[in-house]
Write a structure and sequence with these properties.
mainly beta, single chain, 4-stranded antiparallel beta sheet, about 110 residues, 8 strands
Length: about 110
Amino acid sequence: MAPISEIVRTVHLEHDQMLILEDLRTGRVRVLHGGVWLTEPGETRDHFLQPGDALPVRSAGALVQAQGPTQVELTRLGRRPRAAWWPRLRALAARWHLGPVPDTCA
């Protein structure tokens, strides 16, 4: 099952303005206009993104700095809630006589 995505917000940045992505632990930054420099804690490589470029963000505290007037789209990536497929799995297990399945998943 593919991950779901949720556009968190679109941000307008002025030249050299910085944005710290504390709440985007697993997400994506996409440049709509302008350009950015992006660096993440613990990573040895920095990235320069231009319009249309997108990059996954894997850790809280990533830093984005505008390289001129810039607009970026921040997207949170996540998995579909387990509750959506857990009842179907229980029904399949019952139909195939696989034994009892717990009421919830851990």
